[in-house]
Write a structure and sequence with these properties.
By secondary structure, the chain is an alpha+beta fold. The protein is about 25% helix and about 30% strand. The mean pLDDT is about 95. The structure holds adenosine-5'-diphosphate (ADP) and magnesium ion (MG).
Length: about 375
């Protein structure tokens, strides 16, 4: 088990034409499940490769506990990695692939042959691949290969697990089960885990701590609750939460917030002065989560906007409405029983205390 620290880490490809990571600082606490969340191309795999030592760092340092590992070889770092692309040995059976980390020369004395076989069977059972042990990788589906790759990482108890989108190629049901298994294994063993995913719900549901990464930069680090409740900027606000937060512009006028459509919302003096000091020419960005908007009758005095329901997407107990107003399309999450019909005219309302405010220039959260 180990704490992992990245200090001012940068990585370029193609002689500097691609800046995959730009001055990354991260502190991953000992024994925690840490998720790195970001869209495709954000730099997740690169981060895993640098921590594992399979790619050199261009600038910066990496530590495990207090030992600098920046220039250590991968097998000197005692980490176990599962890549999204599997990287299995094509000429070896599943059994041999799973046993491979236990047979490494530096661990020759740790594992007897019986212990190796027992451990391989145990991990295969856990991942539901016990019937595939004598197959070669090319005789497996993508999802099965991915479970073998994950098994090969979990077979040992290293200082850290580095799991790069380890369940991305499983079907939805199996993915759900594996999420639960992974979290259980991690809690049981207490091994520091770095887990990458482009799926915000996966990160929110698995992580003790998480970081949102975009275009090679860390946008925010925090607990899932902190990131969901207090997104640090517009990117995080839009990326975390489904459907995404509604984002629009508003103007400050006297002691009010002037919304699109011309409606004015009274705000308290302290809030006004805080917003006024951050606003650019009185302009602000406001975000409201879909479940924080209320559907009202179009004639309601509380309605801040009026619009027409353009789509209703039923997701079991909840439904997502898309309402078109004069200026914006607004997304709202409601209980399915209370959902209006497509084409219906509605009023929309919300509370100021549910608004997230952002600086229109830097797009950073105003606190
Ligand atoms: P993610 O895993 O978040 O999808 P990656 O870490 O794979 O992102 O990639 C980050 C950026 O670096 C992307 O722009 C990608 O195209 C680029 N990149 C990654 N590996 C290489 C490589 N070997 N050569 C050139 N560019 C690369
Ligand atoms: Mg990747």
């Amino acid at each position: 088990m180990a704490k992992i620290t990245l200090m001012n880490v940068s990585k370029q490809y193609k002689g500097g034409a691609i800046q995959a990571l730009k001055d990354i600082n991260l502190e991953i606490e000992d024994g925690k499940f840490f998720c790195l969340l970001g869209p495709a191309g954000a730099g997740k795999t690169t981060t895993i490769k640098l921590i594992a030592g399979v790619e050199p760092v261009d600038q910066g340092k990496i530590f495990m506990d207090d030992q600098e590992v920046t220039h250590l070889l991968p097998n000197q770092r005692d980490v176990a990695v599962a890549f999204e692309t599997y990287a299995l040995y094509p000429q070896r059976t599943v059994r041999e692939n799973l046993a491979f980390p236990l047979r490494a020369p530096i661990r020759r004395k740790e594992w007897s042959e019986e212990q190796i076989q027992a451990r391989v069977e145990e991990i295969a059972k856990l991942l539901g691949i016990e019937d595939l042990l004598d197959r070669l990788p090319r005789q497996l589906s993508g999802g099965q290969r991915q479970r073998v790759a994950l098994g090969r990482a979990l077979v040992r108890k290293p200082k850290a697990y580095l799991l790069d989108e380890p369940i991305a190629h499983l079907d939805a049901k199996l993915r759900h089960r594996m999420r639960g298994e992974l979290r259980r294994i991690q809690l049981e063993l207490g091994i520091t885990t770095v887990y990458t995913t482009p799926d915000q719900l996966e990160a929110l549901s698995l992580a003790d701590q998480m970081a949102v990464i975009n275009e090679g930069k860390i946008e925010q680090v925090g607990s899932p609750a902190e990131i969901y409740q207090r997104p640090a900027n517009v990117f995080v606000a839009r990326f975390v939460g489904d459907p995404p937060m509604n984002i629009f512009h508003a103007e400050l006028e006297d002691a009010t917030l002037c919304l699109f459509g011309g409606k004015k919302l009274g705000i308290s003096e302290p809030l006004f002065s805080k917003l006024a000091s951050a606003a650019v020419e009185k302009s602000l960005i406001i975000g409201i989560r879909p479940r924080d908007i209320r559907v009202l009758s179009p004639s309601s005095a509380e309605a801040l906007w009026r619009g027409q329901v353009k789509y209703v997407q039923v997701l079991g107990e909840t439904s997502i409405l898309t309402v078109s107003t004069d200026s914006y399309e607004v997304r709202i999450k409601v209980n399915s029983q209370e959902a209006p019909k497509r084409g219906e005219a509605v009023g929309l309302g919300f509370d100021v205390r549910d608004c997230h405010f952002f600086d229109p220039r830097s797009e950073r959260r105003i606190d």
